[in-house]
Amino acid sequence: MNRLKDATSPYLLQHADNPVDWWEWSPEAFAEARRRDVPVLLSVGYAACHWCHVMAHQSFEDEQTAALMNRLFVNIKVDREERPDIDAVYMEATQAMTGQGGWPMTVFMTPDGHPFYCGTYFPRPQFQALLQAVDKAWREQRDEVTGQGQQVVEALSSRAPAMGGTQPPGSEQLGQAVQALARSYDVARGGFGGAPKFPPSMALEFLLRHHARTQDAEALAMAGHTLEAMARGGMYDQLGGGFARYSVDDAWIVPHFEKMLYDNALLARVYAHWWRLTGTPLARRVALETCDWMLRDLRTPQDGLASALDADSEGVEGKYYVWTPEQLREVLGDEDGGYAAGLFEVTGTFEHGTSVLQLLRDPDDVERYERVRHALLAAREERVPPARDDKVVAAWNGLAIAALAECGALLDRPDLVTAAREVARLVIDLHVRDGRLVRTSRDGTAGSNAGVLEDYADVAEGLIALHGVTGEAEYVRVAGTLLDTVLDRFGDEQGGFYDTADDAERLFRRPQDPTDNATPSGQFAAAGALLSYAALTGSQRHRDAATAALSPASLLAEQHARFAGWGLAVAEAHLTGPLEIAVVGEPGDERTRALHQTALMSVSPGAVVSVGAPGSTASPLLEGRGLVGGEPAAYVCRNFACRLPVTTPAALGAEVRG
Q1: CATH number for the 3-157 domain, one of 3.40.50.1100, 1.10.150.130, 3.40.30.10, 3.40.1280.10?
Q2: Residue 368: left (phi > 0), alpha (psi -120 to 50), or beta?
């Protein structure tokens, strides 16, 4: 085994028995490259990445290729999920050099860390030829190679900081963002753009919030159509719940089968919000099934949530999930097998006569459908399952805390709220240290990598959401501590935020990107958490910071709305106040519970809820609030200004709608 045998990352451990003499990212690796006077070959990927597995099997497990790598380079392997900062700066270089990016990412660099040739996946023959060509250039054209690396560093380092200096989007700009999304909207199939199609979670949250504020029918129609299309297609696991990473086609039929915690946490929350807005039964079912999948398949023994399930099983992508008509009959018998083949669109049109399951219509016989689904799920569990990346990432667990808490409260599943509490307990106890965050843990042991901006923002967001459901004061306190660290350690000169703290490891460029990717951008996630915290506490400092951090969304709204969905969603909340609702009453009182539930059902964008007994200090929003005539009461506030308290759910409902 190589040096990776002592790594904690499941991705690095996948490569521990390669014949490649891998190093982890470290000063010692670069010192070795300087000592040997050879370039560094950086390979970046993640455990659930299908093409990372392909390149590993073709090249990194091949003795001849490994011998070339070991002789000509110092080889460094990085898990992009553990070190998103390294991934970000070298992906920026890869995209600048090649016009595209992806994983595995392959970067050749000088011993000073300056990239001079970048790419992604290379088949073995091309990769071997590339290794020899880079070595030849290094030996015979050293000045040109190092000069190119220096030019790349200077060009990227001279780029202006993230867009800033304007105001958050106003009502007109948010309307323009809806129209920008409409221009790329697939009217026939839902979603935006063509294949491949990724779940546009953040854009959908924006559209739902925009409709709630303006009653814009087009925004709701685009969101609802896309949410239904995704839930009925093959990208959604019709047996076990949960969504795959993306659809390789434009009709949501054939997924790329890896299943990520972050996608499912974001989508469970969006489906719950769709249900809250419309009462659509499909939305309720999918939100709950997705939460159940997260807890069933990703829960760790320490009560955290693992990062992902692999796309492959037994070396074949999707083998765990696909079916033939014959397999259905074998499990269910001829009659139910034929019924299932028709219901789930199993016609043998995928690879090797198999099909991905879809559910294009609601079943007429719900009892039969449930019986068939459970039988197929039980049979599938006898197959060899995909591998699980069981590291716990702080940011993604923060997203899951928010989803589990809100789904549990809105959809009457107290067990989900309990699970959210347990996940929060793990994150607070294991990942939070003196106001700082550790990004990952595994098997109950915290890792050594510092949290990045998205970790602080998403954990704070999750804890604030959990406080809104439980009223427990600790969650607000910890969220405030984390957000103070964001303000003290991550800020830039224009009122935005860098993705790494001011005392993080120095790379050739300090990463900063306000646009969303698979998850909300750190900057927009921070803006949302800061705004919610300000609403709970009355802190003008946090509100001002949220306002400044939202400014890039103004520039992105009209032309690049798909990549600013979370910023636009937070801007909707910023524009409406946001709405703050304080419920005061004894926790066991049914009247308190009814007021609290009405508050949680408010569709006002970014509504913030706090609940506590008279005299509670769970949040400053509750301080000084009391019962009215001995009755539990709700106080409705916008921009720290509160209306007269109300004592009935009907009156509260009228207030929050007004």
Answers
A1: 3.40.30.10
A2: alpha
